[in-house]
Amino acid sequence: MNHCQMLGYHREITYRSDNTGNSKNMRRLFWTTYVFEKHMSLYFGRASSMQDFDIDAQYPAITRDPAVRPWDESFVMGIRLAKLQGEIYDKLYSAEAAKSSHPERMRRVHGLALDIQQWYAEFKEVSKRIIPDHECVLVTVIPPCSACGELSSQCFRVARLSLQSHLRCFGNFQTSGFHTKADYANWVLLFSSFTPFIVIFLHAIAATSSDDIQLLNEVVESLHRLRIHFPGLKILVLSF
């Protein structure tokens, strides 16, 4: 991302003055890096090195070719989701956000949750495939209901939806024939938060819920099927 900044890829004037014919690839490179960086920022709890107020580069153009258009639209939707992930960190988890009062934080939570739900409603018009990302992001947005760390019913509900979404997606990947299990692990699992699993695990202990245990077992079984492609994943499976 620092290299993109030094090259001026975050500024629209860079593309307008380009005479190499590579502006399309340059723009796509910048926004791809942006998506990865925003995700990793929230994932590891670190401030983003690229702030939105300093970016005026336009999104990649969407082609008129009906065979390619959904992919371009999905990419733009991915950029918009990355922006929301950046807002989640800035408004809820940054050092400045930690100073906010509880009522103010809850106001931000509800606002961000509505933004994510609106994003997903628009995304469904682009792609009918169900992905777990939006539920995982919602779990990151919806905090415990009190300072003592109790799980709110809303947080538990979204965490359950996220794990169920993972199971549906994994099943679709297995039967589609278009993607491999390695594709699923690289492009879905590595971009998904493990928070929903932890939320359901804690709820299973607190409520002694057999349904929760069954759901967790199904998720672990899905990871078990991927272990042959990723030896490191075996350690994760054995841990649970």
Describe this entry's structure for a reader.
The chain is mainly α. The chain folds into 2 domains: 1-130, no CATH class; 131-239. It is 67% helix and 0% strand. It is built from 11 helices and no strands. The protein has helices at 2-6, 12-16, 23-44, 69-93, 102-126, 133-141, 153-176, 181-187, 195-207, 210-226, 231-239. α4 packs antiparallel against α5 and α7 crosses α9. The chain is globular, with a radius of gyration of 20 Å. The two termini are 35 Å apart. Residues 142-148 have low confidence and may be disordered. GO terms for molecular function: DNA binding; DNA-binding transcription factor activity; zinc ion binding. InterPro entries: AtrR-like, XnlR_reg_dom. Residues 4-119 form the Xylanolytic transcriptional activator regulatory domain. Pfam families: Fungal_trans. This is Xylanolytic transcriptional activator regulatory domain-containing protein.
